Amino acid sequence: MVKKYFVIIFISITALFSYLAYKPYDVVIAGPVITDQIYFEEELKEYSSKNGIKIKYLSMPDIETYLIQNPNHKIDIAIIPNPQGVTNLGERSIVLPIEELISKDKIKSSFSNHLINVTTSSDTEINYGVFFRLFPNSLIWYDVEKYQKLGSPEFESYIDLLEFTKQNSSGNNELWCLDMESGGSTGWVATNWLEDLIIHHYGPEIYDKWYSQVLKPSSKEVIFSFMDIGRLVYPENYVFGGYKRIVRKEFRNNFLNLTNKDLSCVFSWSGHYSSYYFPNNSEFGKDYDFMKFPSIKNKNALIGIGDILVATNKKETTIDVINFLINDNFGKTWMSKYDATYLPANINNLNKIENQMTYKEQLLVRSSLQEDLFRYDASELMERKIGSDALWKALKNYIDLGPERAYKEILDIIEELESKY
Questions:
Q1: Same fold for the domain at 25-136+304-376 and the one at 139-300+383-418?
Q2: Please, what sign has the CA dihedral across residues 115, 301, 238, 151?
Q3: CATH topology for the 139-300+383-418 domain
Q4: d(CA 224, CA 107)
Q5: Angle between the N-to-C axes of helices 403-418 and 220-233, in degrees from 0 to 180, rounded to the nearest 10
Q6: How far apart are CA 353 and CA 82, in angstroms?
Q7: What's the pLDDT band for 24 if we cut at 50, 70, 90?
Q8: Looking at domain 25-136+304-376, which CATH architecture does it have?
């Protein structure tokens, strides 16, 4: 009997202490799976212990849709992976104007004009988010050993790249790996090429008119940029497997082929995402590296992507945490990790980055932000029926035409693309 009462008392006391110890999370953050999420969560735990605010991070595949379909959600802050998602949520009154939580002066002093503009709705003229992280796209990756054998060339322009390719490519010695097949999304890789050519050749003003769909596909800047892609992909012996291979072989192949010593290709034109697909036994700086896409007129221009913080309420704890996430010193522990990939969008965040690759990316991003020459991926800013459909198809079809047909049929492709506007 005594034993029975002891068990009841023990269970009761345990339940009571569990109840008293339990405290719901003060702030719930939700967003995509982050590559080095464990470091992000460490940063949140440090803040929690110092400030007595319990924070939880939930990763989910499509946070934008979740917030729309679940009006009774318990999420306080969300990380949205594209600007259109931010303005969509803001226009639906699902997230708040960001200046209700972060001062306008802080936003203006921490972020470039472009980053502020793309999270501002053209309908309401209200800004609904602030950028959290950025990643560069305008990169030329290369195999270090093969590159050194070519004399470690430096390029000042795309013309330099083409001329060097012409002089150093031959049968069985193609210098470029440019596979871009990606299932139903085939073409998105080539949108990065088009974006690089437009901003580096014609500047940010033309780029802004293009992504906002003021500049039509039939403009000379867009047509000439299509043709400039052809100048790299069409000539015989420039690209591994020839132009017909490009739209038929998966883009992930490029990074295995670059580091394959039995293959000749040295270069691949792609973004930060490439770093996820190099062989596990290869090392940045030793086996592979990158250079920025070259330009004379717009030397520090850079195309990239990133993710954005939004808030669904303005509780005191929500305000505290979202300001912490954009603080000039946020990520100090995260960035000290040798393999961390966190690259802050806040231009005043100058914490030391230990990861050599991320540090090199940061130098490029910071230079572009300082001159307001960082531009978000245009295909993500356009209407989705264009940027995530018609433009992909146009580039895929153009590359697949080949040199003889492209000159004659490019206007047909452009006309079809323009019909979607």
A1: yes
A2: negative
A3: D-Maltodextrin-Binding Protein; domain 2 (3.40.190)
A4: 37
A5: 150
A6: 24
A7: confident
A8: 3-Layer(aba) Sandwich (3.40)
Report the C-alpha gap between 243 and 404 in whole angstroms: 12
Distance CA 134, CA 126 (A): 22
| pTM exceeding the 0.85 threshold for the entire prediction | yes
Q: Judge whether 365 and 373 are in contact, CB under 8 Å.
A: no
Instruction: Give the domain ranges of the chain.
Output: 25-136+304-376, 139-300+383-418
Q: What is the pLDDT of residues 389-399, one digit of tens each?
A: 999 999 999 99
Query: Which residue, chain included where needed, has tokens 């972020």?
Result: 111
Q: Which two tokens stand for residue 282?
A: 């290869």
Other C-beta atoms within 10 Å of 421: how many? Answer: 13
Q: So what's the pLDDT on residue 213?
A: 95
Q: Which two tokens stand for residue 101?
A: 């939580």
- CA–CA distance, 139 with 365 (Å, rounded to integer): 12
Q: How high is the mean pLDDT of the chain?
A: 94
Quick one: tokens of 342?
């966190």
